[in-house]
Give the backbone structure.
Amino acid sequence: MISFRGLKKSFAGKEVLRGVDLEVKRGEVLFIIGTSGVGKSVTIKHLVGLMRPDGGELWLDGARVDTLDERALYDVRKKCAMVFQHATLFDSMTLLENVALPLRKHRKLSERAAETEAMRYLEMVHMQSFAHSYPAELGDGTRKRAAIARALTVGPEYVLFDEPTTGLDPVSARRIDKLIRELADEQKMTSIVVSHDLTSIFSVADRVALLYRGVVHAVGTPAEIRASQDPVVQQFIHGRSDGPMETPGF
Amino acid sequence: MIALSVDVLEKTFAGAIRWLLRGRRGASITRGEVLRQLYQIGNRSLLFVCVTLGFLGMVLVFQTCLQVNRITGDLSQVGAEFIKILVHEFGPSLTAMMLATRVGAGIAAEIGSMVVTEQIDALRMNGVDPVDYLIVPRFLASLVMTGALTTIGVGAAILMGALTAYYSFHLNPVVFLDPSHVRLGDLATGVMKCAAYGAAVPIVAGICGLAARGGSEGVGTATTRAVISASFVVILLDFFLSGFALFTFQRGGL
């Protein structure tokens, strides 16, 4: 189980997270939603030590992780993989080499064994035919799927997705949604998905948490969120420009 | 920034020593990556360094001969002193300044872009230390190539200086190309400076790159900061190492 307890973070004096409290149960797909700049990505990056909180605590399976040093965080990152917004594949490597990298580093496999194993993960996301292509030769959706394969290689129990469907065409976006759902249903993987793609939210999520003004404003199942009478929730899920919701920068 | 600098310094030296002692087994970096950086830093800076030091050699010799001609008219010692000052001072320092601009900017821009596109975070998530993977190969390559480029650059400056002295002041190249004033202390100072500059430029540029924040504007700021900081560090090191050499080699009669 993942637990965010009173998580606080400021950038240059600007308070982004003001005390996020959230629990993620094993095996569920939790969507963190909210307007741009509200701190959704910042929240999940704290869990794997890519950012350090100013206050609050982070717990992963009963162990506190926000106080760990970089070396100890390697074990957290094996358990809790992350798929970044821009795929972040390394341009100088083929897809196969990209996917093999964590196998060599985290699991200490030889180059040959890592590539054999990497091919298995590429097959899992139906990407085996692109194994020897370079990221620059591929489209965004294909790169994202390869990034998911790379994240899965360390055998994680949790996967963090940072806006996985942003910038994708509807077909590619739905393929990514399907993949996230399959990971939860078939492999019992727990996922936290940062998104503001309403189609994804209501077709994939088990629960949804709306982040607003640096705190979790509302949390519940998609049906509960849809039925909520809260004006902020209603404005967000209907994508209305008028309403009580403040959008940073507007 | 201070914590980042200490971390990068510590990891770079530890990573380099580990790689030198244990080769591929000891570090995240591969031999191929070090060779690629040797090519990037060395071969691709060669023309730039040779042209710059060649022209500086021409200007320095021309101006020196002009002044000496007005005062004594005896140009016989110009070449010997020119070679001496090139070996212990101008050769390493000017080469390092060139590398601070060309190589320093390149390293900071590359690493800075990786920071703002989250590739550094992706490396950390994949169990790879960004300092070990990105800065150590550049550090090792820079250490080797600063010495090599200085040697070639000094050669270019001497050659152009000799040609300038011959064509402008009819000074016999045999008289000009006199290395007798170069002492062991001069050579030791030159080697020491090459090693210090070769180590400093990639570390300073790497720190600036890793400290990049924001988007493309952040990368631009990091690149500018890398060039200024690396050049400043070269000047500072030059001051302290020249002082050190003065009090050790010259007082010791070397």
Q: What stands out?
A: Residues 165 and 196 of chain A are 9 Å apart (CA to CA).
